[in-house]
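# step 3/5: fold
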Amino acid sequence: MDIPLTPETEQFIQQQIAIGKFSSVSEVVDAGVKLLEERERIYKGRFEELQREIQIGLDASERGEVIDGETFMNQLREKLQQKMQQQVQQLEE
């Protein structure tokens, strides 16, 4: 397979070989493809997790288990302030 590469990519590949991380261009390309596969697997898993979380929220909403936005934001601000106070206390110790 003949793959055209930018000069920057070619230089990066040659640097990886020169410093001994890889012994050939194909090893560098294989490593890149494996990283891409892993990223896609993670994104797919996260997407499916988000879909499940959305469905949980929709189900709760249909059951009437909701709070208004202002209450939610106040609770969120409260939690944030508590976390910030904990971090300050940890730094002071």
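# step 4/5: annotate
The chain has three helices and no strands.
# step 5/5: archive (pending)
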